[in-house]
Amino acid sequence: MTKWIGLWLAVVLSVQVMPAQAPPAPAGSYLLGPGDQITVSLRDRKEIEIRPARIGQDGAVELSYVGNLHAEGLSTQQLAKEIETRLTRIVQNPVVTVEVSEYGSQPVSVLGAVNRPGVHQLRGSKSLVEVLSLAEGLKNEAGNEIKITRPKSSGPIPLANAKEDATGEFMTAEVKVKGLMDATLPEANIQIRAHDVITVPRAELVYVLGKVKRPGGFPLAERESISVLQALAMAEGVEPGALTQGAKILRASVGSTAPVEIPIDIKKMLANAAPDQPLRPNDVLFVPSSTMKTVGVKILETGLQMATGVVVWGR
Questions:
Q1: What's the CA gap between 247 and 264, in Å, rounded?
Q2: Where are the alpha helices (DSSP H) in the chain?
Q3: How many beta carbons lie within 10 A of that of residue 217, not counting itself?
């Protein structure tokens, strides 16, 4: 009988000394991870100062008065409760607040034609649109597709066109910009995960130079090509003194650094006396002035660089 009582007391005592398990994190709350820096404050106990500390790669954080704590995967509220439990040894009824003073555990790279490319921190659950907002949105020259690259260790990309890359270590998928932005493809607005890489390629452009009101490069967007008159409309038309019958298209030639020159008569096109012509990606539509009927390719290339910052030939 004495033996059974002793065993029963041992079980009771072992249950009593086990630490209470932290309650589940609230839905949508930020979960701490390696690289995050936290600030701990203790209400009404200014004499106890706990310095900010960074969570290490092992998921643990070292805090004065508290010691080493595992923080990875916990919310700030859960970690605060763990710290309170430790502090009860030296403080009566401690009330702790934990805040993230510097985020570093959920990096996502946004590259290409966005207004603020670079590495951004998710700071919790974020959709693709929300991450693009962190990068301050797409530039005007953004292409029609967004590429997402995800380490296989982070799980699948929930898109129908997701596939494994050549290395076998990453998954890749593409999202159409128009369907994402106008919400006609809500399934494209997937949840982004830490260490994803989002790439926004620049759209293919055509260029309009010379005696036009707004020279520069214009994106093809979803179209494979635009016509001469469409490009001219994007450039807001010709200026007075433009020699529209002496215009030309300059087109890159395979195997050569010099472009092919294609004479066109915009005046006849506008009068429906000649067919409109399609422009290809990287074509340059040049409209000369009546006082300068011929311009060398080198001068045109210099003008193109000044107007757009792009070199089309001589690569």
A1: 5
A2: 2-17, 76-87, 128-134, 177-181, 228-234, 266-270, 297-308
A3: 23
- Of all helices (H) and strands (E), which one includes residue 171? strand 170-176
Contact 175, 159 (CB under 8 A): yes
Residue 51: pLDDT above 50? yes
Residue with tokens 């298209």: 249
pTM score: 0.69
Identity of residue 308: T
Q: Which CATH architecture has domain 28-102?
A: 2-Layer Sandwich (3.30)
Helix (H, G, I), strand (E, B), or coil: what is residue 250? strand
The fold for domain 205-308 equals Outer membrane lipoprotein wza fold like (3.10.560)
- Of residues 225 and 154, the one with the higher pLDDT is 154
For 20-41, how does the pLDDT look when each residue is reduced to its tens digit (9 = 90+)? 455 666 656 789 999 999 999 9
